[in-house]
Write a structure and sequence with these properties.
The chain has two domains: 4-15 and 85-216, HAD superfamily/HAD-like (Rossmann fold, 3-Layer(aba) Sandwich), CATH 3.40.50.1000; 17-83. The protein has ten helices and eight strands. It has helices spanning 17-30, 37-41, 48-55, 58-80, 90-99, 112-122, 145-152, 169-177, 192-198, 207-212, and strands at 4-7, 14-15, 85-86, 103-107, 130-132, 162-166, 181-185, 202-204. The strands form two sheets. The protein has a six-stranded parallel sheet with strand order 5-4-1-6-7-8, with helices on both faces. The protein has a two-stranded antiparallel sheet with strand order 2-3. Helix 1 crosses helix 4 (58-80). It is globular, with a radius of gyration of 17 Å.
Length: 227
């Protein structure tokens, strides 16, 4: 089994990806900008620094990007954060990993207030070693910054044996750039083929499904070989 497991949060541990999509759409409309649900949904997993330039013309991004991002952040905290719900099985999965002796770190590029609330809602505060937030990374996924920050939170002897668990292709791309292997979860809404193409070496439906298949997963004490 690995010495450490780094978990993404949104879409991996909590059911929030559609809420983030709706929040971005509302924020865009506030600034007179209109996108389809699918246009924005396909970018979820990136932070605003990566999502906005992927959707906006360069001049609009330069002129309005910061204001749109700040409006969206406030809007999410105000109207959407309370709607977020945990996926089943997260705490039990963390208890299994923790009981096996692996260190758990969360790698989120969300705001600290959001990450803190998610940890409390999931009841995993005593099971994790640390958690990163937007304050810990200059660039969000698919940049490797957030995973590199998470690696620094691990004991030195655990940094060479780590798996990442995430739900978007951007998690896998970012982890790969940091030299890390990724387990993909489909509960975030991305198809298996998309996750595999991005670099995920094992795919499960959800945290609960990963727990149910733990003994044949890369997290097991006698884990199968994953190239």
């Amino acid at each position: 089994m690995p010495k450490a497991v780094i978990f993404d949060v949104d879409g991996t541990l909590i059911d929030s990806n559609d809420l983030h999509t709706e929040c971005w759409l509302e924020a865009f409309r506030h600034f007179g900008l209109h996108f389809t649900f699918d246009q924005v949904r396909g970018q979820i997993g990136k932070g605003g620094d990566q999502l906005l330039p992927a959707l906006l013309p360069p001049q609009t991004f330069q002129q309005q990007g910061e204001a749109i991002s700040e409006f969206r952040n406030d809007l999410f905290k105000r109207n959407y954060l309370a709607q977020v719900r945990p996926f089943p099985g997260v705490k039990a999965l963390f208890e299994r990993i923790h009981g096996d002796g692996a260190v758990i770190v969360l790698a989120s590029s969300g705001l600290k207030v959001e990450v803190d609330q998610h940890v409390e809602m999931l009841g995993i505060g005593a099971l994790i070693s640390s958690a990163t937030t937007a304050d810990d990374a200059q660039s969000s996924k698919p940049s490797p910054d957030i995973f590199e920050a998470a690696l620094k939170r691990l004991p030195a002897d655990a940094r060479n044996d780590v798996w990442v668990v995430g739900d978007t292709p951007y998690d896998a791309q970012a982890a790969g750039k940091a030299g890390l292997r990724t387990i993909g979860l489909m509960c975030g809404g991305f198809p298996e083929a998309v996750l595999r193409d991005a670099g995920c070496l094992a795919i499960f439906e959800s945290p609960e499904h990963l727990l149910a298949n733990y003994d044949t997963s890369p997290l097991a004490k006698l884990a199968p070989a994953y190239a």
